[in-house]
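Lab meeting notes turned into a lecture example. A postdoc, R.K., suggested we walk through two folding results consecutively so the class can see how the record format repeats. The first protein's sequence and structure tokens come next.
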Amino acid sequence: MADTQPDIIQADGEDSQKEENFSKISILELQKKYEIGRDPLYARMRYLQIKTWKVSGKAYLYADQIAQMDALHDHIKTTGRMEGYPVPEPSGPVEEEQQPTSSTLAVAETQQLSTTSNYAPKQKRSQSSGQVDDIAAIVQSAQGKAAGTLIAENVLARHFIENPNLLPDELKAKIKESGEMPSIDPFAYADSLISAAMGSISAA
């Protein structure tokens, strides 16, 4: 009987590859899915403690991470902010820490002494980039709140215009006063303008 085991292994490998392709989404696809920019997307990932997986040089999120991102997106649509959504455990690739040998430690200390002036600016740039992402997320949330406030104000104003009897008595009195302007004789008003103009010409 012929041994068909290699064919079975290959088929399983192909199914596994197809399943993996369906279970991951790239960063660009997530931006399109949530209709947000790159900075707000990474701000949400930092909030959820999510790190991307690198596949062929591209960044991806897998099914469990995507589920957290979807839930946070729904929370933001409901509340207008990330705060209040429970932060999950960190996810993504874990970098293994290696204990340096004595010779490696000596070389590292020497390099640190020689490049101290260059190290601080790099750290500052990293912090600045994170701050920019956070500020972008805050601004986006503030804009949403401002738009909601203005929309509500316009809707309520239209409601009171259509139902002026709901206004306070003080405002009703002012509206009534504005409609009781004294009548003006156009000819008398014209004569007063002409007299003022002639007086100005004589004075010149």
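The second example is placed directly after the first for contrast:
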Amino acid sequence: MKINNKKRVSYHVGVQLVILALLLLSISVLRYLGYTYFIGIFFLTAFLVLVYGFLKNQFIFEYENSGQVISIKSYRWISSGKKFPVFEMPQKKIVRIEIQERTFRKYLIILFSNSSGKVLRRNIDITFCSEDEIQLLFEDIANNLVKEKSGTYFL
């Protein structure tokens, strides 16, 4: 199963760039017309659009489950597709998963065992995924854990 949010992120970044271009055009027109007071307001609005763009909807999240290995990749929209695995693990080593919400962020928390049997924790930022994508991701990992562990999985 594959899950990604590339189309939605690309759409949001495109809308943000159009809004930013319109605001910068408005600033130049207002400067030409001599409305210096409004330039500050439009400049502040353009700055807030840029900050919002950096904080939200810039990370593309890809999840792939081949049945044996779970692979999660996350990269910036601007990185032109340079993908690095954030998490790649054989499914049988995953002990537990949960979703935790903190202030303005959502995390997929994966507990897994390493080769020595020690349980390790990995937090993966899934803030930029929709609720449907998060639900599909959680259900897919949970269903495969239940099959693998034959009923010993706890949510």
